[in-house]
Here is the input.
Amino acid sequence: MYTRFFTFFLFFAFSFSINLSAQIDQKEVIFIITNGGDSILTSKIFSSKTNEDQVTFLLNGARKTYQASEVKSYFKKSRRYSIFINSEGQHKLAQILVRGTYKLARSFSAQGDEKFYLLVNQEWKNLDPYAFSLNEYLVTLLPDLDQIIGNKKIHYNARSLGKAISKYSKIKNPSYRISGYPGYTDKFKFGCLGTFGMKSISTNNFFINDFNNSFGFNLGLGAELSYSRLFSMKFQIVYAQNRWNNTLEILRLNTINFAPLWSVEVFRPSRNFGLSASVGPNFIFAKNLKIDEIDDRYNQVTKLNPVNIGYDFQVEASFGRSLELILSYQFDPSVKTLKRGVTGSRTVNLRINTFRAGILYYFVN
Here is the structure.
């Protein structure tokens, strides 16, 4: 009995292993269907060269590009169809988000802009020119839309448009079945950050506590992950060199500041301009505080806690998709010497306030 069970177990395990390996090794089926009805299988579609106007893929070891007017559709993770915009006389490769009598489609331009199209009376309408006046324009296409959705504002994203069009279709055609609303398209941006800042400092255990402000340029990196129309997470890491002095001593402190920020968009009148506010902790990575007497009679090095926590409050103004202006106030309530072990020649507790303004340029967006 045990022999049979063991044999069956080995057979089952071997079969499961073969099936699992086949699933892991199975490649995604990627294909392009031309206007002539030919189905072209390919191992790769080049995302950087594929947009609403064209699809670029690998054919016989070389790159091949078809324009949107030359194909019916292509499949990579989801299917894109060639739709014709009669008012513009152009074809666009787009994904159908909402089906039914009134279809909603989404495409991405060569610049990476998300664009939407609506099928009304068998004609595709480009919604992009009306991105920030959607309610007014959609009422001209769907005359009783405002009676169905009320005063609810429709925003130019897949989630908001999808809910509005689905609800309209359901009222107009009770047999229409809603299978789920499209999700918001997550967006990721990454770039370089440069700021000019003024830092004030207050200390203890110093003969004279009246230190002048420290002024300087700071360089760093910034990233943003948007996962809804209003909310996003921002991450900034900045290297700063600071120098304060009074009539007796000079303080030198080099820090790396890392700030994960919770951001909310407060004003967006157009695609080219918006205002947001952000808040979050500011992690200050510091190793040593150097203390020099002005006439060079002595110099000291005080070891600091490697990680200290403050707060960062920001207001950002975005211009287009790549440029952002930043105003920031950082409050670091306590940067201390080590509590254990060697603390250097002096025990200190620093409080640092920073006002800075700068530019964040996203080269990935």
In short: Confidence is low (pLDDT under 50) at residues 1-14, 20-26. The first strand starts at residue 30 and ends at 34. The two ends are 63 Å apart (CA to CA).
